[in-house]
Amino acid sequence: MKKIIIIGASSGMGMRIATDFARLGWRVGIAARHEDRLKAVKDLYPDRIEYMTIDVAAPDATERFYKLIELIDGMDYLLYSAGCGWNNPELDETFDERTIDVNVKGFTRIINAAYKYYKDTANLHRGHIAAITSVAGVKGIGISATYSATKRYQWAYLQAIDQLAHQQHVNVSVTDIRPGFVDTPLLSGDKNYPLLMSIDYVAPRIERAIVRHRRVAVIDSRWAVITALWRMIPDPLWRRLELNF
Ligand SMILES: NC(=O)c1ccc[n+]([C@@H]2O[C@H](COP(=O)([O-])OP(=O)(O)OC[C@H]3O[C@@H](n4cnc5c(N)ncnc54)[C@H](OP(=O)(O)O)[C@@H]3O)[C@@H](O)[C@H]2O)c1
What we know:
Elements: E1 3-7, H1 12-23, E2 27-32, H2 35-44, E3 49-53, H3 61-71, E4 77-80, H4 93-120, E5 127-132, H5 145-167, E6 172-179, H6 199-211, E7 216-219, H7 221-232, H8 235-240
Parallel strand pairs: 1-2, 1-4, 2-3, 4-5, 5-6, 6-7
Bound molecules: NADP nicotinamide-adenine-dinucleotide phosphate.
Residues 8-14, 32-34, 37, 54-57, 81-85, 102, 106, 132, 134, 179, 181-182, 184-187 line the site of NADP nicotinamide-adenine-dinucleotide phosphate.
């Protein structure tokens, strides 16, 4: 029986992917801050899902993460789906700090803890580290400067961990999942985002990318084309682009 830990599984994509894997018979360990929501997810598959409240921004996050691994008796896959972000053209410091706490500090803490777990158990089985980043990492986006910068950080960090695993002969593979806009609580119910995708549409694509150990998966192909075009835009032109979503 496969075992997956999903951080950020109390809502949105993480929650949906947790229930999908539990339905398939996997053992699933879920974490986030809101205990009532985690419990509601566990109640759907009480024999297959265990939960642990974890605030990735808190210093005890690593210890609690390891306890969750113990609860499901191992970890074949990690999915980091915790995240936050806001449009912040006023550069409000409170939003910036919360975004950095979860998308950078918490992300680094949990990815490192997973890597060390696999390093210590390297010869037992192959480990896999996956994270939902975003297409927003492709370039700095003026109205969401911190969000786009933290997503770029996540891209680079996952790439670095993949290289480190190769250098240190640690049996770990890494998947960077980069969706475009998805209709989740993160977008506060606003349906006006361009090419907005439903969770029903993205969840199976993310799950396939994880089980196939894809290195990078842009969800979906339309967003792959858009981000490829964005990359080609020279900086002086990018600067003038009015991105207002
Ligand atoms: N929705 C989109 O358009 C979109 C597009 C591209 C990428 N993404 C990325 O996809 C990931 C999942 O987001 P989502 O869209 O599914 O949004 P979501 O429904 O808001 O889910 C975010 C999850 O992160 C958890 N979380 C937030 N702060 C946390 C903390 N300090 N410690 C532990 N868990 C925390 C939340 O749970 P608690 O509040 O219970 O802690 C929740 O379970 C994020 O990284 C997001 O940036 C989203």
